[in-house]
Automatic annotation (TrEMBL), chain A:
Name of the protein in question: Phosphocarrier protein HPr
Task of the protein: Component of the dihydroxyacetone kinase complex, which is responsible for the phosphoenolpyruvate (PEP)-dependent phosphorylation of dihydroxyacetone. DhaM serves as the phosphoryl donor. Is phosphorylated by phosphoenolpyruvate in an EI- and HPr-dependent reaction, and a phosphorelay system on histidine residues finally leads to phosphoryl transfer to DhaL and dihydroxyacetone. General (non sugar-specific) component of the phosphoenolpyruvate-dependent sugar phosphotransferase system (sugar PTS). This major carbohydrate active-transport system catalyzes the phosphorylation of incoming sugar substrates concomitantly with their translocation across the cell membrane. The phosphoryl group from phosphoenolpyruvate (PEP) is transferred to the phosphoryl carrier protein HPr by enzyme I. Phospho-HPr then transfers it to the PTS EIIA domain.
Residues of the PTS EIIA type-4 domain: 2-129
Coiled-coil segments on the chain, per record: none
Residue ranges constituting the HPr domain according to the UniProt record: 158-241
Catalytically driven reaction(s): dihydroxyacetone + phosphoenolpyruvate = dihydroxyacetone phosphate + pyruvate
EC number: 2.7.1.121
Keyword Transport part of the UniProt annotation: no
Keywords of this entry: Transferase
Automatic annotation (TrEMBL), chain B:
Record carries keyword Kinase: yes
Domain DhaL: 6-213
Protein name: Dihydroxyacetone kinase subunit L
Species whose genome carries this gene: Myceligenerans salitolerans
SUPFAM superfamilies: DhaL-like (SSF101473)
UniProt xrefs under Pfam families: Dak2 (PF02734)
Span of the signal peptide: none
UniProt entry keywords in alphabetical sequence: Kinase, Transferase
Gene assigned in the entry: dhaL
PANTHER family assigned: TRIOKINASE/FMN CYCLASE (PTHR28629), TRIOKINASE_FMN CYCLASE (PTHR28629:SF4)
Length: 241, 220
């Protein structure tokens, strides 16, 4: 992996839980949770944070750090100020802690470089804001309209197809991660119901449930092949049916 | 009066005493507008620094060491606070002492250096916490303290500069009472943060008061 991830929380339990959650979607990424005080209390300890950064740095060429509140952020900043070597490989990515960590893990798993992972964290904040104003998201869906299934759509060489969600829980975290990872692997530019399918958070924000017909629009090299792979993946029910 | 490494040690030890004496008050302030751990965090942090100073002193017993520098005491304070305080005040005070240590690598410091030390501390806090005056944070105590020290240094000595800084920090802390917090944990409270003194500004006043009390070698 190019990028490993450090999750810094006031709470050791929160950091561990988040690493578990994000790790489920990105099994090959090194996620190092760190948090709390040595005595078990809430807070941030410089030595522990520095050790976590070193562990992550040993596992990948770059380290992306997410931190929850005030002193977590300040402690990461301090650790980087005190250690030039760490400062040259680690970067603190501002964004929502939980959504950002999930997005970062999936991006890193897809082979994104440090810039891509930091962007994923930042975009997680935007997706969050969009989900909060969910009405506009649905309006955008209607504007996009249903595409003509299986027909090469326009002069840009993009392909549109549809697939119906079959698994009972719909496009929840695990299948959304599978789709976005596949999109990264295919190297294609993909919209699913109008949202960027490389973003696990945007896919989840669709709130797509069982039986919904998803419109998949693919552009880029071998768009038709990629569209077919994705339609088949979604249609197969992600091994959940 | 010489501001040497002994003074710096007394400063830190008296700060440890002061935050222990006022622990309940700091915690009560923080409970009103924060997470209620400021007193506890600072007591733990400065106790850890004192333990390290004690350990270093017993190691040094009987050996002729290299000259002791003010900056060495401040750097030890910085790294220990960052590792043991736990809350935001750890990296904030830690960075303040770290930056202060960088300009005080001398056996004794003069008036100009004491002003530079306070300026560097404030710069460190501002760089780390990104707070500006008026946001109800420790910056509201540090900023007037630095300004007062700069003014006092023009006509007085290093003790005058420190006394002016401590008095201004005390007034600055009191002046945070009506402010609405826009930085730090208290900012989550919005308007409800008004009417309470900022705990970080108060502990800053205690810290600088201890620097003045450390001028006196006798009183402990």
């Amino acid at each position: 992996m190019t990028v490993s991830i450090v999750l810094v929380s006031h709470s050791a339990a929160m950091a561990r839980g988040l690493a578990e959650l994000a790790g489920q979607m990105a099994p090959d990424v090194t996620l190092v949770p760190v948090g709390g005080l040595p005595d078990g209390g809430l807070g941030s300890a410089l030595d522990d944070v520095t050790a976590a950064l070193r562990r992550a740095a040993a596992a990948a060429s770059d380290v992306v750090v997410l931190a929850d509140l005030g002193s977590s952020v300040l402690t990461v900043d301090s650790a980087l100020e005190l250690d030039d070597e760490l400062a040259s490989v680690a970067v603190l990515a501002p964004g929502p802690f939980v959504e950002g960590a999930v997005a970062a893990a999936v991006a890193a798993h897809g082979g994104s470089d440090v810039h891509g992972v930091v962007t994923a964290v930042r975009d997680a904040g935007r997706t969050f804001a969009r989900a909060a104003g969910g009405a506009s998201l649905e309006a955008a869906d209607e504007d996009a309209g249903p595409g003509a299934a299986g027909v090469p759509a326009d002069e840009n060489g993009s392909v549109t197809t549809t697939a119906t969600l079959r698994n009972p829980l719909g496009l929840h975290a695990r299948p959304a991660a599978l789709v976005s990872r596949k999109v990264a692997e295919l190297g294609a530019s993909v919209l699913v119901d109008g949202v960027d399918a490389s973003s696990v958070l945007q896919l989840m924000a669709l709130g797509a449930t069982q039986g919904r017909e998803l419109t998949i629009t693919v552009s880029g090299r071998d768009a038709a092949g990629a569209a077919e792979v994705l339609a088949e993946m979604i249609g197969s029910g992600f091994g959940e049916v | 009066m010489t501001l040497d490494a002994d003074w710096a040690e007394r400063w830190i030890r008296r700060t440890a005493d002061a935050v222990a004496d006022r622990r309940d008050e700091l915690t009560a302030l923080d409970r009103e507008i924060g997470d209620g751990d400021h007193g506890e965090n600072l007591v733990r942090g400065f106790r850890a620094v004192v333990a390290k100073l004690d350990a270093r002193r017993s190691e040094a017993d009987g050996s002729v060491g290299s000259p002791r520098l003010v900056g060495d005491v401040l750097k030890l304070t910085a790294t220990t606070l960052m590792s043991t305080v736990g809350g935001a005040s750890g990296p904030l005070y830690g960075t303040a002492f770290l930056r202060a240590a960088k300009v005080t690598g001398h056996e004794a410091i003069d008036t100009r250096t004491i002003v530079a030390m306070l300026e560097s501390a404030l710069d460190g806090i501002t760089a780390r916490g990104k707070a500006e005056p008026g946001e109800k944070t420790m910056v509201d105590a540090w900023t007037p303290a630095v300004e007062a020290a700069e003014r006092a240094a023009g006509e007085g000595d290093e003790a005058d500069a420190l006394r002016a800084a401590a008095a201004a920090a005390d007034a600055g802390a009191t002046a945070t009472i009506p402010l609405v917090a826009t930085k730090g944990r208290a900012s989550y409270l919005g308007e409800r943060s008004a009417g309470h003194e900022d705990p970080g500004a108060r502990s800053t006043a205690l810290l600088l008061a201890a620097a003045v009390s450390a001028l006196d070698e006798e009183t402990v």
